[in-house]
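Sequence only, no structure available. Ideas?
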Amino acid sequence: MTTPATPSARRADLDWIRVMAFGLLILFHTALVYSPYDWHIQSEHRLSWMPQLLTLTGPWRLTLLFLVSGAAMSFLTARRTPGQVLKARFERLGPPLLMGVLLLVSIQSWIEAMDNGWWGADYLGWLGHEFGPEGLMDGVPFNHLWFVNYIAAYSVVVVLLMLRPGLIERLAGWLAPLVAGARVVWVPLLYLVAIRLTLYPLFGSTNALVGDWYNHAQSLGAFLFGFLLARHEPLWQALERYRRLTLIIALAVLPVLVFQAGYFPNNIAYDAAKFAIQATYQWAVIATILGYGSRYLRQKDGPVLRYLTDAVFPLYLAHQTILVVAVWLIRPAGLAPLLEATILGIITFGGSLLIYEIVRRVGWLRPVWGLKPFPPARPPAPFTGRRRLLMVGATAPLLVLIVFLVSVAAYPGFDHASQYLSELGGADARYPQIFNVGVFISGVMAALTGIGIGWALMALTGARITGLMTAAAFLLAGYGLSASSLYPWPDPRHMVISLGLGIQIAPLLILWGLRERRDVPRLKAFLISAFAVMAVLTLFTKHLVLPGTVNDLNVGWWETAYATVLIGWAGVAAVLLERAVRHEATNRGSVTITA
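Reply:
I predicted one. Tokens follow.
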């Protein structure tokens, strides 16, 4: 078993495959919302062709993830003792599993119970029921976290194998010849066909750790396959060599598989043929992905991959809860299937990324969400606090966009042309709390952004007065937003939101503070453009120049455009200022700061 890399080296291709497989998993769960299968919560729309679509990834996606997870386990165990491996696995998987079951899964099961009509809006009462004697009699609910539970169990299996000196080497030495050369195509394929024909009819697939014998034969088999042979270079050479053959096999059986997905006769002979086709497609796709990945992605490392590799576990933990909540809130709007699915996808991916961006910056939250703890404390990097506050400003527009889309979806018949945005949180809205809570959080983020921008100006120019004035403009805007959400439209006190208009002068203040800097031309040009656009939009209100231009029939579009610029410019400015501050810190030579 040889490899040109060091035993503990990571493989970029396996990281890319893991990231893409988890991305497909999120799309798969979104598609289940529209399928005829029984899922936690579903749309009013059921698409008859969804089983055929799900067939494209259903047979192989999780098996591939188990195989890649086993390969990652191989790199983890290099030069570690069994005790060290067990400790590392417990620290990485234990806290997320506990948090996920108590918080993330409980929210899903609570919404599912409300959706089925046998529980009310009492979430705390649901927690008492779910984790009380009666609820626990039915078992601990894992939902999508069953995968983490299985990985934890399979990691224990590996630790037990490590306790027997030489056992892993002997197993790898036995397995390697079985899949050498062209046998890498046929032997795993025949194994998957055999267990599908023999174990699946008897045990099915339950995703419950105890008694799930078919799933263990498939998933533990894939996990150990990846673990034993991840660093066996001849395997990857064979997968690369036969990648075109496995691609042809996959494409050849796919039409049959798609046809089978829509046709379910109760016939033993037919079922056997269907199982054989599914297993054939399963390994053909896995081998193709591994072969092409090894060929073209092995050296494709970089900051994007490192970011996604770090983000994938928190996204996996968060995505299904966000999706279930989004379906529950959006479904009453009765949107068209394509629009509804698009909004669900944006909210699920965007919300999961937002959670990751938050938890990766908070030391005590990182282990709870499956991230490694921060390294031991070092002297703080210059301007670290400023940069973090600026990144709050960079993410604020995304939050506002999500709140807007969800609020509109929850307000059937909202007229974008004639209605004001504040009406999304008014008395006529079905779920006004969505908009009002979002506006309150946005106000807090605006205040934090202003502190960051003012503080950054002080770091870049030493202009304390200008920095304080800029921060004050944002603080007033943030206060106006948050306070207005406490007095929803049409309460007259809602007009405290007008304090937010003061943020229009902030671009001029920032420009004045940066007047001596010659190294930020793009930032200056952007600030000038943002101020100009806001000035033009302000002039064309219903109350100033050309009062007939903006009228009751189009005021909604004007306000939407105005709000987009008002909020969007601050996010872009925060990003550009963060880069300038980072560059300034690097130039000062105290530490090296990377993006």
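The chain is about 70% helix and 0% strand.
Hope that gets you unstuck.
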